[in-house]
Fold this sequence. Notes:
Blueprint: H1 3-17, H2 35-42, H3 48-58, H4 61-70, H5 72-105, H6 108-117, H7 124-141, H8 143-155, E1 157-159, E2 166-168
Antiparallel strand pairs: 1-2
Helix pairs in contact: 2-5, 2-6, 3-5, 3-8, 4-5, 5-7, 5-8
Amino acid sequence: MTCRQSLLIVLLALAGCTDTATVQLATDTLPEGSPGASLVQRFNMGQGLRGLALDAARATTTYAALAQQLGKAAADQQVQAQLDRHLSHYQAAWDYQLADLYAQHLSTEELRSLAREGTRSPFAAKFNTVQPVLAAQMQTQSRPLTAELVTKALATEQYDRPTGSVTDAP
Length: 170
């Protein structure tokens, strides 16, 4: 059995174990003028998707097989490259979810002030209080999106052991 066949079997098994529905990706950017969107965009708050996706990928049997074949450093490098390749297709949906959660926890006035003034905002203390709750909610709500990103990144590529390079699967 080739490495590619083994990888395909593992991915099919992984796909059969998930209970997540296909994620509806946002095709547009965040709504113009949305206070939550302004906050997320101004401070690049959506950048956490990259790290969470790599953490999720590391938890898969596919990653374990790659790490065994290539070594952890090479597996990390190649998986991150594939995640980065697909990240732009998921970033808008991630940012939208994040902006929506901020809007559920903070008023329009608070969001506008935070987007405008950052840590100098009179609402910075409330933001810091809400942040751990919001982060936990985001992690839970974003699981389907993160799982789809990871599955796509791991499923669309062939990882070659001899050179450690990544090539498109035929």
